[in-house]
Design a protein that fits this description.
Layout (H helix, E strand, L loop, with lengths): L1 H28 L4 E2 H6 L3 H12 L4 E5 L2 E5 L6 E5 L18 E6 L10 E2 L11 E6 L5 H5 L2 E2 L7 E6 L4
Amino acid sequence: MRPILKQHNYMRIGINLFVLLVVFVFQSNAQSISSVSDYQKTLAKSDTENLNKLLKNLQTTVYLESGNLKTFGEGKPSYLKTDAASISKLNTAQTSYANIELMEISLSKKGEENQVKLNAEFVANFPKLKYLLIRSEYQLSATAFESIVSNFKNSNIVLLYEVSIPQ
C-alpha cells in the first residue's frame, strides 16, 4: 500500500509544479499597466528624468481632439495627445507619427473607458513609441485601466495610467 501513496504524492507534486510553471509563464508574458508614480519608483534617476521631460516639458505636440488634428511647436512631434472620441481617426489622420515617443489618451466623461480598447496593433504606426498613457479625469480603478489594454505582452511599450481630476 505504501508504493501507491508514494506514487500519488509524486503525481500531486508533479501537477503542482506544472500549474506553477503555467502561471509563471503567463505572468511573465503579460504586460501590466502601472500608475505613473508607481512606475517612476522602479526607474533609475536618469530614466525618471527622461519620462518627466516627456510628461512635463514643452515640446512639439500633435493634438487629435474632437476629430480635429493640430500640431503645436517646432520640429518633429514627440508627444501625441488624443481623446477617446478621436482614437479611431489616428490611423487615418494625415500626419507622421515617426517620432512620437509618448501617446496620451484622455478620458473625460464617465463610461469612455468602456469604449476604448487598445492593443499592440493599434500602435503599429508609431515606431518610436515608448509610453502609452491613459489619463482619466474621473475616478477609475487600476482594474478599469487594465481592461482598456490587451495584447501588449511582446511589446516594449510601457503602459501607464493616471487619474487627474480637474479642480
